[in-house]
Design brief:
CATH topology of the largest domain: Nucleoside Triphosphate Pyrophosphohydrolase
Radius of gyration: 21 Å
Number of domains: 2
Protein name: Nudix hydrolase domain-containing protein
CATH architecture of the largest domain: Alpha-Beta Complex
Pfam families: NUDIX, WHD_NrtR
Oligomer: single chain
Organism: Mucilaginibacter pedocola
Domain Nudix hydrolase: 19-174
InterPro entries: NUDIX_hydrolase-like_dom_sf (IPR015797), NUDIX_hydrolase_dom (IPR000086), WH-like_DNA-bd_sf (IPR036388), WH_DNA-bd_sf (IPR036390), WHD_NrtR (IPR054105)
CATH class of the largest domain: Alpha Beta
Structural class: alpha+beta
């Protein structure tokens, strides 16, 4: 929603384009300087931070809707994206304490009617995605006032049940680390074995064996050794590696045992 008119159309006639009572909420994790962060939104109508999300269009699958939402919020396409869990507890989207009705009227120029398509009980499908913060460009729309990366251990009290959605998404991501090489979007095109080991330690929350983990990546054919070293002054220069594109795509499709 890039304008007041688009926002009004959504609130008044959105049921013509979107599926009422079915939404997507995305936990978009970012990695930078050996720290894992979560992208949160703050809009002009809500009193609390929340996950990026939105309703599913009638012409979209759940995966397509999640991909659209992550692209709209990060400016990046083709991110690794996985469904975490469905959330449908009664009352989960109650907005009495979080919704600023006065701000809504001032911004939109009308009041939401009791029979609005937006006010029914809504089931949301939680997804997660991961990206390199350096390459992401969080985007604000007409009703958003802030978009910010929060360290994973400093997440505030969120709107709706989004703290639970974020936790389940993080747990799902850490399980998927064992089966999919999902770190490619978080590293530079060439990297050292120490850098990829540290990435997976931050994502998994575990300490990995400095020899066994890199050796397993090599044995699986996921990495290619480059004839290039990282310059680090007087110390022994580590060798650069890159992902083997064919092996990486196959592992994403078929899965494997990684860590």
């Amino acid at each position: 929603m890039d304008s007041l008119q688009q926002a009004r159309d959504f609130f008044e006639r959105g049921h013509l384009e979107y599926r009422p009572n079915l939404s997507i909420d995305c936990a978009i994790f970012g990695y930078h300087d050996e720290e894992l962060k979560l992208l949160l939104m703050k809009n002009k109508l809500m009193r609390k931070w929340h996950l990026p999300g939105g309703f599913v269009k009638k012409t979209e699958s759940l995966d397509d809707a999640a991909a659209r939402i992550t692209m709209e919020r990060t400016g990046l396409e083709r991110l690794f994206l996985r469904q975490a869990k469905a959330f449908g507890d009664v009352g989960r989207n109650t907005t009495t304490e979080m919704f600023d009705e006065i701000a809504f009227i001032q911004l939109m120029g009308f009041k939401i009617e009791p029979d609005s398509w937006l006010l029914g009980e809504t089931v949301t499908i939680g997804f997660y995605s991961i990206t390199d913060i350096v390459n992401a460009s969080p985007i604000l729309d007409f009703i958003s006032e802030d978009c910010r990366w929060f360290p994973i251990n400093e997440i505030p009290d969120l709107a709706f049940d989004h703290n639970e959605v974020a936790k389940e998404a993080l747990d799902r991501m850490r399980i998927d680390l064992y089966h999919f090489p999902i770190g490619k979007n978080l590293l530079q095109p060439k990297f050292t074995l120490k850098e990829i080991k540290r990435l997976y330690e931050v994502l998994s929350g575990k300490t990995l064996n400095p020899t066994n983990f890199p050796n397993k990546l090599m044995a699986l054919g996921l990495l290619e050794k480059l004839d290039e070293k990282k310059a680090i002054g007087g110390h022994r220069s580590p060798t650069f590696y890159k992902f083997n594109e064919e092996a990486y795509e196959k592992a994403l499709e078929e899965g494997l045992v990684l860590v």
